[in-house]
Amino acid sequence: MQKISTCLWFNNQAEEAMSFYVSTFKNSKVTDVSRFGDAGPGEKGSVMSMTIEIDGTEIIAVNGGPEFAFTEAMSLFVKCEDQAEIDHYWEKLLDGGKPMRCGWLTDKYGVTWQIVPTVLGELLKDKDREKSKRVMQEMLKMVKLDIGLLQAASKG
Fold it and tell me: What pLDDT score does 19 carry?
């Protein structure tokens, strides 16, 4: 059992958002759905909470009402092995959303994601400080991250 899970608070789009995420990520599934009953506060039969699993990571969504909204202060970090994976998640999650700098985007539900190549961490930790500085400067110019450009910046 996973000890810590992410819980996302939606007004009333939990089911739609979680179904979208399951359709976006290959190794994912719905693991639980709870519905409102006669006591409410939501409409009887509508989704109260929904749990999905993406690559073994549990994410819970709650239809809690309009009291809270998402901010960029919390994001979901997607580690990508290659450019094709970056392109896939970027295209899918950006549909109806808003791009930001450095591989960040906000999806159509207001959830912020970071679509990041795993190689970026290695490039930024290079012992040659000039290489890592060039990589950082290149990344700061990007919206969607481009592995080829980051690697080229490292090489000079």
Answer: 98
